[in-house]
Amino acid sequence: MNAPFFKYGMFNDEVSLIVAFVIGIGFGFFLERAGFGGARKLVAQFYLNDLTVFKVMFTAIITAMVGLYYLSVLGIVDLSLVYVGTTYLMPQIVGGLVLGVGFVVGGYCPGTSCVAVATGRIDGLVTLFGIVVGISIFAETFSFIEEFYFSTDLGVLTLPQLLGLPYGLVVFLVVLMALGGFAGASWVEKKFGPKGIWSQS
Amino acid sequence: MKTLFNNWMLNRTLAIVAGVLGFFALFAGNPYPGATATINTKELAVLIQREADHVTVEELADWIIQGRSDYRLLDLRSEAEFQQYHIPTAVNVPPAALIDYPIARNENIILYSDGGIHAAQAWLLLKARKYRGAYVLKGGLEEWTEKILFPRIAENASPEERAAFEKRKEVSKFFGGSPQTGAAAEKASPQLAMPKLDMPAAPGGTPAGAPKKKKKEGC
């Protein structure tokens, strides 16, 4: 037996929704525990005085990457069934910018806004409302932007195939990049971080 | 101060673990399976004996008429042959291209060739690479031609056979074939013109007059 369980029909659509719910609650719980339910903590990234989000996200990335890599080398996970989205270069750059601007202005990304709502934060509620409005506008105007939405289609890309490097080497390089990133983040925090009585957290 | 030191120790330990795991990844190999594969001979033998390795032409015809889209139909013959005639909804994939062809392991794949040899060989290759839903079209295109496109009935057929033939006639017409009846059916006439490719509709858009009531039978 090997994963992914859903694609092999180990459980059906209904059960997969329950699993998604449980994972979602768990995800939200740990976001809240990491302090990501508060806009100040999140926006601190952009002022370079607290890079917790960067560290947490990069930790998650290398944990998932190393875990999936070794599990698939051991034959437990079938990596070819793990969904990789298609790269549409230009639309995704534009989309990333839209999301980034929203993140800076609102103080939340979509996931953390839900966490903020769960803990009763009003700014989180406003952000979530904005997300719903944005989704509606996108859905209603989709026919006008559909051509752009599917433009610059580069297909399904992964780093090993894009760079032409062995998979294990890419894993190693990304881990090095993360470790360097953590060290760099700590240095940046020391330089720009809160000092003395203004220190909070 | 102590917690700060503990945190620092924990972070350092985690960083070392990540670094070590990343380093060993250099030598652990490729997570995607390469060109080599191992097969479970017993499992495959049982599948073959239970006849769970193939679908019949009647089943396939039913699925196409219903417009089912939960399977992929792959034609293993040459491109020229494919251009001349292929079963509706089929995609041309020569055996050598099959291994790199983008199909997910959880998809249902039906393979066919002229007779069945190439299809059976390709079935073994896919099974070896853990494609769970690989099937061979039993009898291949020959049986498709014989049973679906140009079904025949003997002069001295029993009433049951005649009733069954009526259904076959409808299926045959759907795919642009022509049922062979009477004396003509008795002698083998291999020079029947294959139907034009645009005759049957693609799945999804079931044309009017398609024998919908036949859905229940078959599989």
List keywords for this structure.
heterodimer, A: about 200 residues, mainly alpha, two-stranded antiparallel ribbon, 9 helices, 2 strands, globular, B: about 220 residues, alpha/beta, 5-stranded parallel sheet, elongated
Explain this structure.
The complex is a heterodimer of chains A (201) and B (219). By secondary structure, chain A is mainly alpha-helical. Chain A is built from 9 helices and 2 strands, in the order H-H-H-E-H-H-H-H-E-H-H. Chain A has a two-stranded antiparallel ribbon. In chain A, helix 1 packs across helix 5, helix 3 (52-73) packs antiparallel against helix 9 (167-192) and helix 5 (110-118) crosses helix 6 (122-140). Chain A is globular, with a radius of gyration of 20 Å. The mean pLDDT of chain A is 86. By secondary structure, chain B is α/β, with parallel strands linked by helices. Chain B is built from 9 helices and 5 strands, in the order ααβαβαβαβαβααα. In chain B, strands 1-5-4-2-3 form a 5-stranded parallel sheet. The A-B interface holds A 7-9, 59, 62, 66, 68-70, 72-73, 78-81, 166-169, 171-172, 174-176, 178-179, 182 and B 11, 14-15, 18-19, 21-23, 25-32, 104-106, 130, 132.
Topology readout:
The complex is a heterodimer of chains A (201) and B (219).
Chain A: H1 13-33, H2 39-43, H3 52-73, E1 86-88, H4 89-106, H5 110-118, H6 122-140, H7 142-149, E2 153-156, H8 159-163, H9 167-192
Helix pairs in contact in A: 1-5, 3-9, 5-6
Chain B: H1 2-28, H2 41-49, E1 54-55, H3 57-66, E2 72-75, H4 79-84, E3 90-92, H5 95-98, E4 108-112, H6 117-128, E5 133-137, H7 140-149, H8 159-174, H9 182-186
